Amino acid sequence: MTSAVDLRSDTVTRPTAAMREAGLRAEVGDDVMGDDPSVNALQARLASDLGFEAGLFLPSGTQSNLAALMAHCERGDEYLVGMDAHTYKYEGGGAAVLGSIQPQAIVQAEDGTLPLEKLASAVKPLGDPHFARTRLLALENTWQGRALPLAYLPEAAAFARSRGLVHHLDGARLFNAAVASGVAAREITRHFDSVSVCLSKGLGAPAGSVLVGSVEVIAKARRWRKVLGGGWRQAGLLAAMASHALDHHVERLADDHRRARELADALRELPGVDVETPQTNLVFITVPADATPALASHLQARGVLIAGSGPRLRLVTHLDIDDAGLARAIAAFNAFFAAR
After folding, report:
1. DSSP string, 52-96
2. pTM
3. Is 178 left (phi over 0), alpha (psi -120 to 50) or beta?
4. Three-class HEC string of 181-201
5. Which of 20, 50, 70, 156 would staple 224 via disulfide (CB 3.0–4.6 Å)?
6. Banded pLDDT at 169 (limits 50, 70, 90)
7. Dist CA 196 CA 209 (whole Å)
């Protein structure tokens, strides 16, 4: 049976045979006790590669971001974040619910940056008891598939330093951003005090994210991970698969980006479909309102899966979509619009 072409997200990838084998061979221990060698190796590797002192392996990107916010901020503090950022909009309000940390949402520019003049006006007067203490600036890379401009990163870091703010990056698709920008990931992360790196998206690992930062911040985050229920035992099985992904699946992200561009170019030919030019592996299209939800049903019947019914849709290329799968998806879209 032919497998589905799943464009819903890059989180749907399945471990490759080689990745499964790496998990089977993994040395393991008890990570809560700190003696799982595969976990320790993964944490140390990413910390070193990205320019930080220490790392912490967590079950999810959501928990990694939350542990970072709770490690950096105290109750009643405030963090500045994009209006459409994942940490603000799509993580269940965890910082407010569990950390008692107030978000101050800023409207992002089209390239995903937070304009410095808007940030400056959002920072609260220091020492005034009427206000929450502005403590942290959080950015996201990539944002809606866009890599933050390299020139913006030192500007945002300098702003954070000038205001005494901690600087955190939700690097859920950090390596996509690095590959698209033509730089090593470290050239992006060196501007931040902490970075959360997701391993289960484009890199294709089954689960997990690594938070990197100073020894002090990671020690605090480790405690919060336990409080949040994220302490795990023989996690070396997953850590070894994540290490395999770092060894073999970073450079190949360029293939996902190429396929995203090819998909965008093909869909741009369809009547009434507006296509945003992709930078990485996320393709955003807007289809006619009267085409939904029939489009999703049509595609599913032909083995092509998409998330939502529109009219704005996000299509994601990833490790499990090859050129043949991409051609099937394009053919299914073409057939739907040819019949309208």
Report:
1. -SEEEEES-HHHHHHHHHHHH--TTEEEEEETT-HHHHSSTTHHH
2. 0.95
3. alpha
4. HCCCCHHHHCCCCEEEEECCC
5. 70
6. very high
7. 7
